[in-house]
Amino acid sequence: MAAQFTTEVETVPETGGEGGARLAARGVTVGYGGRKVIDGLDVAIPPGVITTIIGPNGCGKSTLLRTLTRLLKPAGGSVVLDGEDIAGLRTRDVAKKLGLLPQAPVAPEGLTVADLVARGRHPHQSWLRQWSSDDAGVVERALTMTGVLELADRPVDSLSGGQRQRVWISMALAQGTDLLLLDEPTTYLDLAHAIDVLDLVDDLHESGRTVVMVLHDLNLATRYSDHLIVMRAGSVLAQGHPRDVITAELLHEAFGLRAAVIDDPVGDRPLIVPVGRTHVRLDP
What we know:
six-stranded mixed β-sheet; globular; transport; alpha/beta; 9 helices
């Protein structure tokens, strides 16, 4: 894709929602095969911060994220986006307001980085509005923000795991939304690359975006989040700032985990130290 890149990534101004939230679930119930995974859940995503959903396997974290993006239709309740029931919005209009990075996405074989990121502009295309230099500028800005501009002509399937995650985030940015939902963006990454991707997410938040993530690593979740939603068995067990939410008692209740919670020596969040059966220092 040869084009002159000139303009900035578009952003959608935040509008009023439920209690200041642009995105919220009201009494949402979701199930598979007759089994309820989420039952009557209420949650509101605070604007302008990083919210991370944590909880044990099978508790409904990814189901909640997919429901918030309308990939799953709730059996009961509703999801509200900018004050409107998301079920009544056109798919194109939803895509203009929120971007989703699903878990372990796969690109078509041989597709280049630039072509993949350009697909983020599809919600803005129509018979009356075809590809323009403005779209090319948005794509370049997205590639630049995620540090992968020099990879634009490379096939996506030739990249490392960390590079691919940056490219997928670039595609979400190219949609021109300021509401990003990321389902386990550090899956299959080693710790160094996971930190690299989460630092990028933090940069995007600092530029004014609202981010919702699902993470399994509890210490990375507390380190990179302003707001935690702790789930258990399809319900919200606790939510709030990590300093207010993470306690030894909550970790035991939510995960069945014995742990000490201490001050992070390099940050302003709590640090979780798991306690197993072995390799534990015993007091004399």
